[in-house]
Structure formats: structure tokens, C-alpha cells
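Supplementary material to the annual report.
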Amino acid sequence: MNTTHRLELRDVRIRLDGKTLVSLDTHIGPGEVLTVMGPSGSGKSTLLAHLAGFLAPGFQAAGRVLLDGRDIGDLPAERRGIGLLFQDPLLFPHLSVAGNLRFGMPLATADKAARVDRALARIGLAGFGDRDPATLSGGQKARVALMRLLLSAPCAVLLDEPFSKLDTHLRREMRQLVFERLREAGLPSLLVTHDREDAKAAGGRVIELLP
Amino acid sequence: MMLRLAPVLMVILLVAPILAGLAMALLPAFGYLPALGGDSFSLAPWRALAAQPGIGRSVAISLASGLIATAISLSVVLLYLAAATGSRLDRWIRRLVSPLLSIPHAAAAFGLAFLIAPSGLIARLTSPSLTGWERPPDLLIVQDPWGLSLIAGLVIKEVPFLLLMSLAALPQLDPERRVAMARSLGYRPAIAWLKVVAPALYPLIRLPVFAVIAYASSVVDVAMILGPTLPPTLAVSILTWFSDPDLDQRFLASAGAILQLGVTATALLIWWGLERLVARSMDGWIARGGRRRGEASLHLTGKLLILLTAAVAFTGIGGLAIHSVAGFWRFPDALPRSMTMDHWAQALPSLGEPLASTALIALFSTLLAGVLALAALENEQRTRRPASKALWLLYLPLIVPQIAFLFGLVVVMEQLGTRPTHGLITFGHLLFVLPYVFLSLSEAYRRFDPRWSQLALTLGASRNAAFWRVRLPMLLAPLLTAMAVGLAVSIGQYLPTQLLGAGRVTTVTTEAVSLAAGGNRRVIGVWALVQACLPLAGFVIAIGLPKLLWSNRRGMQGSP
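Predicted assembly:
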């Protein structure tokens, strides 16, 4: 988990009907969290969609996105190696907790069951593998979602306001856990949020988007 | 690649047979059909048609019963939604919609006939105490010359259809907020619903309403059971001419088919005019700003009418069941003196083959429709293009009267030398199964949160894996429901089976309808009950299987 990755955005511009929504030129080093802030409508989500490979038809994107020096702009979403953490934990309701964790593991992973068990133990959910995700608490779901992301071995991570739906207490705890794990895994991360506290906890550079 | 072909294939499958069928009805209607010696165009078939006794009345009955049945059904549905939304009755009715919808038209029509006939259940329950009848009165209630029982039979079946379509469309209107808003301005709930929700709902269910008009003005099986006989409705007359051993009658039948097309088009036009009138008076009613008057009676009629419809449908099915086991049953007795399984025992040996044909045709046409619909919807998701404008073509088989193009299609098949087989009938059923499967599946498919698939992709799953491992299992319940709808549609088909099978392939439905003429109620009871129960089995599986599979997964229980 400790290989180093870096994400570069070279003169990325996203336009809709000729109007530029987002324009960004930056790079994110291993274990670094870059925070992008801005009010709703400033194009934060559009930027994430572009990086992840889901930009809706109608938007025009220019510039290059390099992951470890490789241009991923033309790759389909599933081959980009970019993981996403959503506002909601989005645990697949038809799979068990272990099934959720296993879903994203690369096919060649050796001894998946043991890794799932270890991962559950690390987030304080040892023995939860067979549980129905719907029976977990909000905090437990959020932790499983984070672990599922990490086990899929991404090379970079995008965070889409991942703490906005948690209550205050849980939010603090999850911020700490998420940023700690991402740093530990040496993943370049891009956090989109409108909460200053998130930016502070991320501890990296902050870029403000204008509406 | 295959996916991209799916929408095109779907449109071709639906449109080509209809166009070919219409063309092959149009040519013989003007005397041109070389195979039968019609080498030149002429107006002879039309002159023959005009000379048919009672043709004017046939046309009038078809037109009127179609329009009136639709108007009543729509009113029942709208009044019910206005009066009962959110009540306990509402939850109860919502659960009944699918089973009600799954009852085939023919079975519902037989049920109604057994209920209202002079010796039917209602007469028995009220005789001799209320009516003084000691023997069945000599009244023509079923198959009355005005088509009233035909209209009633259609209403029973079209109410659940329009209700389901409305319930599917309502969530996007956010009716609770609209009504709450109007109530805060002093409107009583039912009036509020009619004034702020109904005008927005109608455009969303307009195509289904048109489909009901087209169906009701050209129906064959219900009209054979409940409709007038001297003369019958236009659609029934056409079928009689077409089935005549004298092949020359086919020219007459073709002219009739084109006339039917005109009758249905006229019905749609009249409805369109009525829409304008109603819209204008609604505008006036809304603008006047009345808030309370009529609320109580709205509540009462809204609930009563839907209860009456549901009660008639279910009592009718109950009546079929009683008749099927009735032994000796003197007239005013409410229940038979003795019960017997004789009718079942006698019917059993001959049930097997039609039952197998019904199941085979229904399963194959539904599977084909399911695969096509899934492929087209998956393609829509992947290309992320909004729903194609060609979508209204899906309604084409539902809006063009069956009888108008089906036997043109038979002529095409005869020309091609295709023999009537199960395959041909399956293909014919697909025309009607596919639209329903697609429409009921597309709802759920388009509402499905796109983040699930995005999540699967960012976790490294391929597009195919995202479909098989995420979208399909999560949409299993709505998929099975759509398939159950498909099965029900196929099982209920009379005309395509009869025409494309040339009477040589029998299904439960064709058997049941053909028994109508014989009038042996006990045998009809057996067959109509079997026909009514078949689709129900599909719905039981569609509801039960996901519950069984996901018994351990609470998040999958409330899925649509």
C-alpha cells in the first residue's frame, strides 16, 4: 500500500456552452490532500465527474489529466485507477459487508477472505463480514465505505463532500480516520467541499472556485 | 455493439409488422389481392360493407362504447386519487392494482356476465325477496343492444390500468407538496388535488388514455362475451367476415378493418376535442377559486366508485369459482345445493395442451421482450442519451387497433407461406408484450441512482460487471414485476393467437372465449378461472422471489 502516486492536472478547463466553469492547473503529491472549495454551482462536482470519467455529454473538457505520468483522459472510468468517496456510504444493499469489501478488490488479490477480515478488524468491525449492511450504524457504514475504497487499491482518490451528511461528532471522527488512512496509503487526494472545517482537517492546500 | 442495435431492433420489430399489416388490409379493402383473384382496384368491398345490415349501428356502438368506457374509467381513477390519496383505503387499493390488472379481459368479462345475468349472482341474491322473481326474468342484460354491459366490462379492466399508469407518473409531480400548498390557502384536500394535481397529471397519462380509447373501441374478446349481437360491434363483425369459409368475404373484412381504423381515429379525435372543452371548463372552475363546495360528495363518490369496481371484479372471479364446482343450482338459491368436481374432471384432459401452449408462448415472448427492453435501457444508460424521441412508437401497437393490422399480417404470412406455429404467435404476442414490459421497466431503470454504477466503475468493475453484479440484482424486483406484466399481457391475448394461429393453436384464452357462444356456465367457469389464475402465478413469483432471495437484506425489501 505504500507505493507513491501523483496526480497532475495540466491546464484543465471544463466548459459548458462556451462558458468556462472550472479552470485548474495543479498537481497533487503522494499522501497530499488538495481541497477545492466553492459555493454550489461553481463546478466542483463537474470537476470530479471529469476526473473520474463521468462527464456528462454537453460539457467540453480541455487539458490533460496525468496519473503517475500517464494520461488517463481517454480511459474509461473503470480503468483510470481513481477511487471515489460519495456523500452517502452507498454500500451495495444486496451484498454482505464482506461482499461489499470484496467487490472492488483486484482479481489477482491473494487470499481475499483473510484481507477482508484484517480490514474489518482495522476499522473496529471484526466479525461483521456476514452482516447485512442495512443493519449497520451510520458511522459503521461510512467506515466500511472507506475500507472498500482502499481495498480496491486506487492510485488516487476523489472525495465528494464525504462528511456533509454525518452528525457533528461522527464528522470529526471520520475526517480524522479518512485523512489518516489516505496519507498512510500515500494516495494523492482531491477533496471537494463547502465546509471550512473539512479543509482545515485535510491540512493541505486549498483552492477556491468562483461561482 | 449488440446493445446499440437493441433500440433499432425494437422499433423495427414493433413498427414493421404494423405497417405491413395495415398495407395488406388496405390493398384488399380496395379489391386488390391477386391471391384471391382481386387483380384490379375497385370500390366493391366498400359497397358491400355499406350494404351490411346494421353496419351503422355497429360503428356507433364501437365508437360510443370506446369513448364512454374511457371517460368513466378515467373519472373513477381521478376521483379516487382526489378522494383517497394517503388514506388507509389508498394503501389497500394500491396493493390490489397489480392483481386486478393481471386478470385477463375475457375472465373479467365472464365474471361480470355471471354476476349481472338474469340468473346471475345479483339476481339470485335479491330474488325473490326484492324482485319477486321466482324464475330468471326474460331480460337481455348481458349483451344488451346498447352495449352497456360491454362498457361495464371494459371499465372494470381499464380502471386498474389507468390507476397504475397514474401511480407511476405521480411521484414526479410531488403531489403531497402541491396539495399541502393549496390546503394552506384554504382548499379542502380532494378539491385541492383536482385543482392542482390533476391538470398536471393528465398530460403524463395521455398516451395510456389514448391506448384505452383505441383498445375499447376495437376490442374483440370482451365484445364477444358482453357486447351486443344483432348487430355486434364492428370489430366482432370483421372477425366473423374474416373467418368466413367464403374467401371472398376477406375483401369485405379488409374494408371493415380500414373502417375500424377510421372509427378508432375518430374516437381519438372526438376525445381530443373533449379534452379542449374540459380543459377550458377546468380553467374556469379553478379560476373561480371555490375551496370547499362539493368536498364531501367528492370523497364519497371517489371511494365508492373504486370500491364498486374492485368488488365487481373480485366477486366476478368468485362467481367463476362457484360455477366451476356447482352441482344442482335452482334459480333463486344464492348458492348451489351441491358441489362437484365433475366439471374440473371433465375439463382436465383437454386443459393440458392449451395450458402448455399458453405457458410456452407467454414465457418466450416475455423473455424476448425482457432481453430487448433491458438491452435498450442499458444502452440508454451507457450512451447517457436522454430517452429517444422514437419512444412514442412503443405505443403504436397499443394505439392502432389490433384487428386493423393483425389480419393484414395474416395475409402477409400466408403470402410468405409461413405456417401457423407457436413461433409465429410468440412473435405476434411480442408486439403487445414488449411495450408493456419496456414501459414498466423503464420507470425503475431511469429512476435508479446513477451513482451505484459510477461507484462500481470506480471500484474497477467493467461496464458489463457493473450491469450483472450491481444493476441487475438491485433491479431484480422491478424486472420480475415487468416480466409478470408481460406474462399477463401474453396470456390475455385473444385476437393475435386466434388469427396468427389460424385456429389451429389453442390457448386457455382462445378456448375460454370460444366457449362463450355455448353458454355452459360451469365449463366456462373452469376455463375462465384457469385463465384468471395463470397471470396471478406470475405476480406471486415476482413478489415472492425477491423477498425470498433478499430475506437477509433489509435494504432490498423496500425496493420499487
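Chain B has 24 helices and no strands.
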